[in-house]
Amino acid sequence: MKKVITLEDFFKLFCDELDEVDLENISIKTDFKNIDEWDSLVALSIIAMIDEEFEVLLTGSDMMKSTTIVDLYNLVLNNLS
Amino acid sequence: MRESDFSLNSKVILITGASSGLGASTAIECSKAGAKVIITGRDQERLDITFNQLHGNGHSKIICDFSVNEDINKLAEVLPNLDGIALCAGITKTIPVKFISNETIDEIFQVNLVSSMLLIQRLLKLKKINKSGSIVFISSISTDYADKGNAIYAASKGALNSFSKVLALELSSKNITSNCIQPGFVPTGMLAVGVVSEEQLLEEKKKYPLGFGEPRDIANGVIYLLSDAAKWVTGSVLTIDGGITLR
Fold first, then answer.
1. Is the CB of residue B147 less than 8 Å away from at least one CB of chain A?
2. Element (H or E) spanning B178, and its range?
3. Integer Cα distance of B114 and B247 in angstroms
4. Helix (H), strand (E) at residue B91
5. What residue in B sits closest to A42 (Cα-Cα)?
6. The whole model's pTM is what?
7. Tens digits of per-residue pLDDT, B103-155?
8. Which residues of B are known to be catalytic?
């Protein structure tokens, strides 16, 4: 079953995994790996969130290849079963 | 001339989790060392691949899914008496503590810990572990070498270390030994797929003074602990990790 989600909702879910993010300084076009708070644990958290919410298991390589939150969003959409 | 204590000649050895990774390699190396091996795993096709690589004759294979307790009971029933057991069945999932669930804990603990404890219990009850036999658990350096996202796996392996020590004491009157091996990172099917990227693997490899290990680096440790050479070794935890935990 396809879980429908808007880019806006996906962006919120993404931001929920960050603790100290200044929402003024982040958008769907932000290169998320350049966020101050970004580290391996945040990356794992994003992977776990996507698995939990969408049952899509992304790999570390998928994260490396993605630049913006839009990239991630599209990746999730393409992998929805 | 007496044959080397490091041989497994004529010993009957059970290897769990033998359809892939360290278990498969352990089975093959044990057969080279002269053992009659009984391999178990959940995947028929992959178990056959391991089976076909065994050296010598007299080996057997039994399908067993360690996530199902009924399978473990049945396995214990059909097994012959054993001189050694290498418990290699294991799964992992990289997940931050914030995301762990009862379901994930149960899944990982069942395969990594509960199944092994229950199998040993059944075998002891059925008196199928021969005197002077040996039990080897595949643990992990993660028991005290922390890595982000590895909490449940590490906890299950830490519990295995503790279980092995009590088992070692309880079985000492029968001269049965129980030991653990803590491997460092050995690229195998279980770990190569998943959330770890190629780039992260390369970074990780640089941290290892001796580089990554090969499955047989671990299998040879298992053979030592199963052999008569280790008859006075019990309750120990042998780290085989290419030096990663030195720093």
1. no
2. strand B177-183
3. 32
4. none
5. B96
6. 0.92
7. 999 999 999 999 999 999 999 999 999 999 999 999 999 999 999 999 999 99
8. 153
